[in-house]
């Protein structure tokens, strides 16, 4: 008896990578359109806590501190998935960098790249920015500053509001950040993001690791493909910089990257969708708390 059932062709590694990248882009677009303010809300939680401590006032469990706590707990459990898939600033950076790469290919001219050693040093800038902002809030100075914050301008733009002339400095700084995004992948996330500094210091459970014994000789594909110049190793002190984008899992020729030490393919579509759904539920709860 002849079987009429067609045999399905196995998905090639290239097709698998394309599917995953499209899935990531789709998730980023959904969060960008529906939850663009989560980053600024969590950052406002940092400012509220620092201000309260500086003024000697009791901490208030506001919508902003709730957002900060929720995102931090999520990051501890699932890694910096928020940074890699849901942060509006990060998604903007990915889009700008992708457009920049397309233009560079079209005009057949490549912009000079920042050396890896310089990148690693520059990644420390965000910790300085975080400390300065905390000190300004604690001293009561930050509240008197206005019109300079690029993330405030970004928040207004995503809310379809005009920043106004009082935010000229903030608009200029945001413009410079966008230029940086075009030059270096994840420019803001790596060098300037104060929330990224907070996330990098958290004791993360769900992160990507690899079995070095199973790696090909002189491969380093995961390192070369990493947007934040991190070598995927559990004992690497710099793994806090990992934004859980899964590009290392995509590019690994031996599928040697694991997630949280137990999922053989940490960037599998189902695993990604589950983490995105949980994060979306967290964001939805934050929106409800903010409306109450």
Write structural notes for this entry.
By secondary structure, the chain is an all-alpha fold. It has one domain. The chain has 14 helices and two strands; from the N terminus they run αααααααααααβααβα. It has helices at residues 13-34, 38-55, 63-78, 81-86, 88-107, 116-122, 125-138, 150-158, 168-183, 187-191, 194-201, 221-225, 247-251, 269-291, and strands spanning 208-210, 257-259. Helix 2 crosses helix 3, helix 2 crosses helix 7 and helix 8 (150-158) crosses helix 9 (168-183).
Beta-strand content bin: under 5%
Largest sheet: 2 strands, antiparallel
The tally of structural domains comes to: 1
Strand order of the largest sheet: 1-2
Order of helices and strands: HHHHHHHHHHHEHHEH
* Count of alpha and pi helical runs: 14
């Amino acid at each position: 008896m002849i079987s009429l059932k067609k045999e399905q062709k196995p998905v090639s590694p290239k097709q698998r990578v394309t599917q995953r990248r499209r899935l990531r882009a789709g998730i980023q677009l959904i969060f960008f359109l529906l939850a663009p303010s989560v980053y600024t809300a969590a950052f406002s939680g940092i400012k509220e806590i620092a201000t309260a401590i500086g003024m000697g006032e009791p901490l208030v469990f506001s919508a902003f501190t709730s957002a900060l706590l929720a995102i931090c707990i999520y990051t501890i459990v699932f890694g910096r998935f928020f940074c890699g898939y849901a942060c509006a600033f990060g998604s903007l950076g990915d889009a700008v960098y992708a457009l920049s790469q397309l233009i560079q290919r079209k005009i057949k001219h490549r912009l000079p790249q920042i050396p890896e050693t310089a990148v690693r040093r520059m990644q420390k800038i965000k910790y300085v920015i975080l400390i300065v902002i905390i000190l300004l809030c604690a001293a009561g100075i930050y509240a008197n500053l206005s019109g300079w914050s690029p993330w405030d301008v970004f928040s207004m733009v995503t809310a379809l509001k005009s920043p106004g002339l009082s935010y000229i400095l903030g608009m200029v700084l945001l413009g410079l950040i966008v230029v940086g995004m075009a030059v270096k992948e994840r420019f803001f996330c790596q060098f300037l993001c104060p929330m990224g500094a907070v996330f990098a210091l958290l004791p993360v459970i769900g992160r990507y690791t690899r079995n070095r014994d199973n790696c090909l000789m002189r491969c380093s594909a995961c390192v070369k493909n990493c947007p934040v110049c991190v070598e995927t190793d559990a004992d690497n002190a710099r793994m806090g910089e990992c934004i859980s984008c899964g590009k290392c899992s995509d590019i690994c020729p031996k599928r040697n990257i694991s997630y949280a030490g137990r999922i053989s393919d940490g960037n599998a579509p189902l695993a990604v969708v589950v983490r995105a759904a949980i994060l979306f539920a967290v964001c939805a709860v934050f929106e409800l708390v903010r409306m109450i």
